[in-house]
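Final report, closing paragraph on structural work. Over the funding period we assembled a curated collection of sequence-structure pairs, and we close with a single example.
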Amino acid sequence: MKAGKYIAPRKVKMVETPKPVVKENEALLKVSYAGICGTDMMIYSGLHPRAEAPLILGHEFSGVVEEVQKNAYVKKGDRVAVEPILVCGTCAACQSGNSHVCAQLKYIGIDGDGGFAEYVTAPLDHLHRMPDTVTDKAAAMLEPLAVAIHTVRRSTLKVGDTVTILGAGPIGLLIALIAERAGAGKIFISDVSPMRLQVAKELGFEAVDATKENVVQTVKDYTNNVGADVVFEVAGNQITADQMIECIKFQGQVVVVSVYKEPPTLQLAAMHFREIGLITTRCYQSGDFTKAIELLGQNKVNVDLLVSHVLPLSKIQKGFDLMGNPNESLKILFDPRSDEHDESI
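Its predicted structure, as stored:
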């Protein structure tokens, strides 16, 4: 089969590799679409602490069941999405119902081969059948949508709250969509990419160009110098680490979603004087994934605008090059079923 492999830092390519063999309690899936995530970019850059080359990347994907044991939850031909988190089930986090922060947390596509391939195997209990109302393309967006749902659920967001989101990448935009569903009033979202800011505008949010406007002042002007009720930090740099403290109100809440490559300096004294709350968030719980399916199935969240490119696996290097330039891309999906499909949306 064809597969997109991470070969070495900043090198990926399509290769021919044996089709995976199905083990007990697994299904073989024919992949429909698979998306590049920020974690994939970290692996590609050689910065991920666990992922090792050679590796078939991809943990955000949808597919069709190709082979499965009889009497399984799914059957051949079922359209599914994969919940890619693998947990130990025995650590304190798992035993307390918080397996998403498992001490031995692993991922399909990070700790083992993933969905950048024509075929992939996945545990039966990690498969979710798709409603007819959810397209294969949208199903490949379920994993990041679950991240956004978990993030907003972790926050103190209340109906009518003013929200600031620092970073208009796929996760930032999905958080904005879910915050809107949760009742947020005004939603500011900042970035330096004109393309991503344009998508934010099209989705109905207050887009702030951080290269031309003072993000903190814009939020304070709107709130009579009080600040936002909740700030989601999704960019992961020192500038936004400063902004998240400066544009939050007294007793407001900062939610750090980013995984920082370098430890930032935090204004702890400023947080102390205004009793600012700070929490972090990691991936999602199983219920968040289920809720993501419900929202997509009921057409309550539209993720179509976030897909900027659909490419064949033969153009995997182009996909990673594009993803490295936020002025040209947003969410990039691979379609392993065809080498001719190349769509810039």
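The mean pLDDT is 95. Residues 142-154 form the longest helix (13 residues). We thank the funder for supporting this effort.
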